[in-house]
TrEMBL record:
Sorted UniProt keywords: Coiled coil
Domain GAF: from-to ranges: 121-259
UniProt source species: Geoanaerobacter pelophilus
Entry superkingdom: Bacteria
Statement: the UniProt record of this protein carries the keyword Transport: no
Residues forming coiled coils: 61-102
Gene3D superfamilies from the UniProt entry: 3.30.450.40
Pfam families the UniProt entry points to: GAF_2
Protein name: GAF domain-containing protein
InterPro entries, A to Z: GAF, GAF-like_dom_sf
Amino acid sequence: MPLDDDKGILNRADEFMQVFKKGAEFTQELLRENERLRFRILEMENIHSASPAAQADSGETMRLMQRISELESEKTEILERIRQIEEENKDFANRYVEIESENNNLANLYIASYQLHSTLDFPEVLQIIIEIVINLIGAENFAIMLLDEKTSMLEAVASEGVDREDVPKVHMGEGVIGDVAKTGDNYFVPDLDLYEMNMNSPMVCIPLKIKEQCIGVLVIYKLLMQKKAFADVDFELFTLLAGHAATAIFSSRLYSDSERKLNTIQGFLDLLTK
């Protein structure tokens, strides 16, 4: 091997060793600097945690956290109160609707009562009862039956939607109609949807009573198409019919009889004085 080549190899090896040494020294220096910085960071953290400012910051943070917790609690209470107020508003609204409905019912009952006692004409009283049953109760087929005290028979004197002759004459205590007249208790078919029209067994039978004396019954066989069930006001009207209608019928019949007798007596007197 030539002598010049050996020298070149030795020089490159020497340069490599120098570079390797510098790299090792630089690495060692980096490790030391890293260790120094870690120690410094740990020292700063200890100083920061132990300083009054750090403690003050921590106290303020705790106070803010507590305040946030209090505000969250107040928010929950306010939301619960709002929910309660909304429930109360719903109750008030429902109560308002009920009161308005009751006022309407009272107005209807007042009108019906006033109409019943506004005349002593027997046919007119019957017509008023028919209008009440149609317009306020919503019945389509029904009849008004009165009791003949001499024969104890119930016979229709007015009807709507059915022929009066088709309404059966019933003895006191016979069937549903006669039983209602005898007991004085209202009768309602158990299920309106299952009811099929039967002249001997109406869907509703209301006694017309003066105190405890029954003078007749109102029998209902069919309701208007839009009438699917009875409302509370209907039962109030049934109660009114049981009393006021009976009184109006009784008074008008008594007045008609008195008028007829008076006319008879007047006619007899006219014959005597001629």
